[in-house]
């Protein structure tokens, strides 16, 4: 009897494994086909996660429109990708559009220039952003507005400028690179967390409203990534967090960039990186996960470790405990000066 049972179960198990493998293969082929020859716009493309996304989407055969403030860096990235031979699919020379996402007056013109590159947009990846480090009581509302302008209002404005062309074609995919801090509030990250909470809410609403138009919306929430985000973060005073010997005040950049203008050059002496950022995931790995999430048309993805992921559930299921843990973290990081 045992023999008969085993001989009946083994073919069934092998059959299940075969079907599962076939489904995974079909999913992989659909993902590749979805990305290949698609027009993909990436903001904040010159560094960190944006740069790695440019590499992986280019290697997958996408037609890239690279966006950023620094025209020279965009040109260098374009040449690097065009010279790359490490791909088995047909590639396309990227286009680039230079503009400052924090300047509302540049967005419409930038969107027009983006559409001029390949005639339409299939995938918009809202990646550009700025970090923040500081105590709420020390932070001016000008700094809050600056962070919100770059992390929230800029991506929203660019998305709105490109949406009409997607709706007309009844085809398009909007991706928002948010953060695990868009799900939970962490001490001394108030402006950043607020901007990412707003991002999560806006694109969740957008997903529901555009479902009938066949427009995909994906929100990706990574944990800490080993990039220069903390180095380039603004502090409570508006200075640049990562430079100990130089002050990068927001007022030092009185005008913004529109398409075609060259970006400012940033210098850094004795820069420091947060421990959490230094121990974060490689941007190469996260970029591969972004590619997979877009290719599989996932709606909401958390790319964080066990502890941050558990914190999201803890916030929802045991908020009192979560609040105590965050208060303890705040006391550990910095003694309150205003109590």
What features would you describe in this structure?
The protein has 339 residues and is α/β, with parallel strands linked by helices. The chain is 50% helix and 12% strand. The protein is built from 10 helices and 9 strands. The chain has helices at 2-35, 48-59, 71-83, 104-118, 141-169, 190-210, 275-278, 283-295, 306-317, 319-333, and strands at residues 39-42, 63-68, 95-98, 123-126, 132-133, 172-177, 215-222, 234-235, 300-303. A 7-stranded parallel beta sheet has the order 3-2-1-4-6-7-9, sandwiched between helices. Strands 5-8 form a two-stranded parallel sheet. Helix 3 links the parallel strand 2 (63-68) and strand 3 (95-98). The longest helix is centred in the first third of the chain and has 34 residues, at 2-35. It is globular and about 60 Å long. The N and C termini lie far apart (76 Å). Residues 244-257 and 260-271 have low confidence and may be disordered. Pfam families: adh_short (PF00106). InterPro entries: KR_dom, NAD(P)-bd_dom_sf, Sc_DH/Rdtase_CS, SDR_fam.
List keywords for this structure.
339 residues, 9 strands, alpha/beta, oxidoreductase, Sc_DH/Rdtase_CS, seven-stranded parallel sheet, two-stranded parallel ribbon
